[in-house]
Amino acid sequence: MSEAHPIPISVVRLGDEVEKLLLEVVRSGVIAQGPVVKRLEDTFASMIGVKHVVAVNNGTTALIAAMQVLDLQPGDEVITSPFTFVATLNAILEAGATARFADISTDDFNVTAESIAARITDRTKVLMPVHLYGQSAGMGPISALADQHGLQIIEDAAQAHCATDAGRAAGSWGIGCFSLYATKNLTSSEGGLISTNDDAIADRLRVLRNQGMRQRYQYEMAGNNYRLTDIHAALCVPQLATYPEQLTRRRANAQRLNEGLAGLPGLRTPTQLDGREHVWHQYTVLVGPGSPLTRDDMVDALTAAGIGCGIYYPKLVFDYDCYRNHSGVIINDVPVAATVVQQCLSLPVHPYLTPDEIDRIVRTVRGLCGA
Ligand SMILES: *Cc1c(COP(=O)(O)O)cnc(C)c1O
Fold first, then answer.
1. Alpha-carbon torsion (258, 261, 262, 267), positive or negative
2. Maximum distance among all alpha carbons in the chain?
3. pTM value?
4. Which is the closest atom of ligand 1 to the Cα of 60?
5. 116 near 144, Cβ under 8 Å?
6. Which ligand 1 atom lies nearest to the CA of residue 192?
7. Domains, the chain, ranges and CATH?
8. Residue 3: its pLDDT value, please?
9. Of 59, 91, 85, residue with least CA distance to 193
10. Ligand 1 pocket by C-beta < 6 Å: which residues?
11. pLDDT tens-digit profile of 292-313?
């Protein structure tokens, strides 16, 4: 292949097993929520070691539903990360709660217990860490903090399917919310999964998802239609079996990138912290002081060289007029996150990269850094 062929930042490849199951579902006539959704829920629950998984129509819905079953009231505060996809914040606002922001660490790009502690008020009800890029936040201290203050934990695990910390999966500490959007590590095109070890919460989630209805025309709560379909679930179920192998590839790719990009001036490669298993949804470097190119010039140069790259995320999540002036958004200084948004750059790490492609990414970045 020529040096110039494009290397995309993500690739969706579903394969024969998906086609087969999808066709089965189409032919079965059961195309809305049915047995394949149940298979998806049960298999994923066993993969991450939780009692219950409830499938919904997307990851944003998963977050909204998690807050709704906790009965959040207007004015109740949720502490989350300022360095996340906008869905995290939109879900908090949709649930009628108020968002506050803890700062992150550059070690894992996630909120720290220390920073959360400084944001707790008497209105705080929920801690919502985001396991960004596929690495779990440091959940031991966050969980202890929640216990100490009587707070609930909702984990935005949209990017962290099967990531672990201290042997426990993301999504197993509180209510876990996963996305199955097209570009996530596991996908149903659009879809979401909610995990919990709490029987009552799982039961309420299932009723909420289906118009608040337990039995036909018996409504227990004001619900909604949050259901996933068997057509969507059929896209995802076969991926569960091959996911461990995909993770092995993502990890090998990340390691090859880390080795190749080590020691460049002003460039900080990502780390997997002790005791955590990273699932490398994104491979994100920081381009900081000392780099011969700015982050944005690096993006332009990589794009020109046919190397897909991304800035996740270019601004703090609240740094837009529609949130800055929103009564549900309480803004405070988050200096680490404010620096990271100016320096972050994600490079391809997806499981279909070849070693040659990784070497080309490495060569190109090293060349840009004058090495
Ligand atoms: C993708 C994503 C979501 C939302 O998931 P959707 O399925 O797109 O609704 C929420 N939070 C984070 C961090 C995400 O990356």
1. negative
2. 68
3. 0.98
4. 9
5. no
6. 7
7. 16-238 (3.40.640.10), 241-368 (3.90.1150.10)
8. 57
9. 59
10. 58-60, 84-85, 87-88, 130, 156, 158-159, 179, 181, 192
11. 999 999 999 999 999 999 999 9
